Amino acid sequence: MAKFPITQKGFKKLEQEIKNLKHLERPKIIEAISVARDFGDLSENAEYHAAREKQSFNEGRILELEDKMARSEIIDITKLSGDTIKFGALVELIDDETEEHVTYHIVGEYEADIVKRRISIVSPIAKALIGKSVGDIVEVVTPKGSKSYEVVSIEYKDIDL
User: Fold this and answer.
1) 101-107 and 89-95 strand pairing
2) Which pairs count as long-range contacts for 74-80, CB under 8 Å and 24+ apart, including other chains?
3) What pLDDT score was predicted for residue 1?
4) Counting CB atoms within 10 angstroms of each CB, which of 2, 16, 29, 139 has the fewest?
């Protein structure tokens, strides 16, 4: 059973999602199944089948998240430091081709959100960045082709969820 890194805030968010699914969604679904049963013949009852499908999805999601929680390794980013990029780093890069500055926060898979510039530790760009230092040139191979970046800065600070 492989462990995976997660921030303290990410772990709390994971716990909250499980709590929500168990204590809010599960009772709603049970009620929907009960109401749908009252409609009569279950073999042709679309509401009943939809509610049962939603119940199956919800229970599967709970199991998936509980597995993630059991395998997670909580890392306190605020206690990290150093001159090389690792999990938790807030990295500023310059695109060698366009001179555009971009910042990424390297986080766990569960916390990744490209809109918020949080990338998963297992993403191609994060894999290419791990172990690099300020001034290093990083070649990243993506589905759209190869890109080259220069590492401008590395910081270790907590993420905003």
Assistant:
1) antiparallel
2) 74/6, 74/7, 74/8, 74/11, 75/5, 75/6, 75/7, 75/8, 76/7, 76/8, 77/7, 77/8, 77/156, 77/157, 77/158, 77/159, 78/156, 78/157, 78/158, 80/156
3) 63
4) 2
Is the Cβ–Cβ distance between 93 and 149 less than 8 Å? yes
* 157: its two tokens: 């600070």
Q: Rounded distance, CA 98 to CA 137, Å?
A: 14
pLDDT tens-place string over residues 30-71: 999 988 888 777 777 788 889 999 999 999 999 999 999 999
- Cα separation, 133 vs 11, in Å, equals 28
Tokens of 107: 């986080």
> What are 18's two structure tokens?
């499980």
Residue at token pair 């597995």 = 67
